[in-house]
């Protein structure tokens, strides 16, 4: 990759905005085939999507004992279920007898057991095999050997996070630590009290693009001036292209005239009680690779969960979370939701526009990262390392 | 595969029901990839589906000279046609000149020849090339060298059975013998006089599952108690999970209160004239691998033909056959047909529920067969042997 | 491949019709997998479709400065754009920054630049990078290194012909020379003045067949008697199966009763001014492999452009071109257009009928060419040579 001595704009930086990258040259992206090769996607499913932690289910969506939801994690159908003891657990959604899916609905509620509808093998909500017709004298060892395959689960920010791998990496290191590191303070996330918030709105997007294009898009703001007029209206520094994610602890400041993080800059809701005053007019974005994005503003939290379904298709589910009293009062969330909903539509259209270009000879060796995008190389290295690719 | 000392239920077996399998441990199924791998399916097409006999066309459906039907056999489009001499013959449905399909309709009737609609090469109903525009002085050797490629055909039970392989296995051994062996008497099948019956109803099912899941489902009755309330109502022993197919010559006895093999146990039709009195209140099921199933009850015969179209898609056509006078009298077949139509829908839903589980890590090494399913291992070995896989 | 001593019909040939092929035996076609194997198609995309010249865009469709059209060439999206200097140029339609498609519309018009809608990298109509937000001090070398990737373009017959390869073959040799050689006179094509004609009608066909089946169909006339009643009505010699393309300089003569090249033989329009009197009642067909076909009749020119999209799918766009005054007068073109539109529908149905036969065992070694098709072997050799296949 040759470089060309380009330098960043000589921005007039207000206090608190990140310094430009010291190395201002063009750097390479991943080659195009990383976004188009089905075999590479298959390896990503095994070594990235199934091998890392992903944010799977909002705890409130499975509030009652016996409540369950089904989610796709890499190639696996995973069942998240609330036990009679109130604990959340996750299992591969596959009967150990002949492989039928235990649940085919997206969500539901059972009483005391999960019963396979094919041959009636029956499992407790803790996954143990508790019954099978025509089989008697089943020992505890038998039950254990043919119980549902457990999936690692951790609750954080009000969500069940799961890892489909048999040997999951450290949740503290990979998720909690990454968020704290990005925000510059391990405790900063706690102020938003995400686990106590209520779901105000959920929108699902079906994006015809590789999941890494969606991650890269979320991580940089070089495109903000071009495609996000509403967002740059509220966060003027975004018009200069510098992503908040490229600097530790930085949050983008609201425009002087913006009363809140809404599509027209009008007032939102009172700041969440634990939000630090230094953050009460700031926007923070955090990427938890591979598939979770967090947006933090004073009065709400936005959480994106991605589900890569094919090398060129990714489903994204976006939750808008508010103080419970805001949701309970049936407050008008529309201007608040509309801002990031538009951002999502603008971003996903851009990702879909890139997908067909990935297969071109013009992109065989990839494209280039300008200085305000250099931090994307960290994500590329992260993926490369997990795939064991040079 | 570890085993776990499980034993079958201590069934109170009425006289005539099969003894439980002597070995009562759990045994392995095929690994999951056998149901999901497109390359393995491609080999199955070549070495199983095209290399064995399949039940292709009801003879009555091509009754007149020149009548033809088109069927899919593995990757091949096969034409079954009635000659002017009354004989049925089968050919690959491909013109030898430039490869056009001779017939694209499902069925039809021609007069004396099959004429390719592209360049008008013309074949006799015996497959011989009889004309080609602009070519003269065609010798008999020329005609023979460019006649339609013949496909082996045998008539049995009123159907044309075909084998797309150049060197077909013995029909007597693979088909007639297998049926006789299952029924415990080579002559037993003759009593139903299937070749003299009339088609009462035909239903086509498009099943989103691997063909082997459909075979396995048909071969075992462990699922009957869970998903087949109507069938176990008529055949109570099925509620205990023991498949008739696991014991030579066994037929399931009708419930004492059942007057016939109908959805509500109401009366059916008079027994077919040749049915042995010992079979006049019994149900027999026979699998003719890979793609044909027979159900024999006193007053009708049900025949399933499967056409595997993809690793995860199988079309099943089911014929209900009755005495000619029953069909001629326009008798009400609805309660009779409804019973196995419901069984089909219940079974195919179960197969479709298994298909997505086959790709899970939980099924990578396969699942387990309980003792009443142990005979499925024979089918697995049959497939393995034909594929040359360990 | 055995041959069989077949000979061509002993045609009573009128003066000027081509002599029958001296070698009258059957010759082999390509094997069936050449029409069904996705990997072979991928190689064709790289070594044939992207490596040769294809007729891409009618110049009049991008008449004004800044007008552009997007076309698919092999796997590449190519942009053909008219510069402010009036010149046509072509580029890979991919931004050099992060790979977004510059244009997703089929056609449009820009002012002075092509601006990527993702991050606003901006290119001149000559492809040079002229601007990128946040980057300053960009040298001419930088601009050149990250300009749009140019695609070779030549204008001929009123069309922009492009070659997506980095090192295109000679346009004069591959295209102009091939047309002259076929017509037997390098100047013959000039008489039709195709570059001065106006577009009367354009029809797009989506054909579910391999592109080579479409080429082969266009090159031979052995099928004309069977499927083209209207065409053989106007060109009676076509009923004998001899393609005009099998003999240098030969054009098929209109039927004595035909006043013009129309669906009913009624009068067309006055002959184009430059058409030689010897050609004023003759039809000439020219194949410019791989994807362009020309039909020349006294009063109009028909040009087919193929876009192979998959091993079994080909889009064909057909232009009917007339004298500008005919189109300007809004003359009734319907009987004129209808003739070849019917021929197209008849031909593409035949191609779609062949596609499923290509995968049969009956066609594994291919089919046969009769003497009036022998010249197709030249096309097969042409493809084989480019693929480096024996």
UniProtKB/TrEMBL annotation, chains A, B, C:
Keywords: 2Fe-2S, Iron, Iron-sulfur, Metal-binding, Oxidoreductase
Domain of life of the organism encoding this protein: Bacteria
InterPro entries: Rieske_2Fe-2S (IPR017941), Rieske_2Fe-2S_sf (IPR036922), Ring_hydroxy_dOase_asu_C_dom (IPR015879), Rng_hydr_dOase-A (IPR001663)
Matching CDD domains: RHO_alpha_C_GbcA-like, Rieske_RO_Alpha_N
Residues covered by region (Disordered): 1-31
Gene Ontology terms, MF aspect: 2 iron, 2 sulfur cluster binding; iron ion binding; monooxygenase activity; oxidoreductase activity, acting on paired donors, with incorporation or reduction of molecular oxygen
Cofactor: Fe cation
Residue ranges occupied by any Rieske domain in the UniProt entry: 55-162
Pfam family, one: Ring_hydroxyl_A
Keyword Lipid metabolism: no
Keyword Chaperone: no
Protein's name in the database: Rieske 2Fe-2S family protein
Organism of this sequence: Geodermatophilus ruber
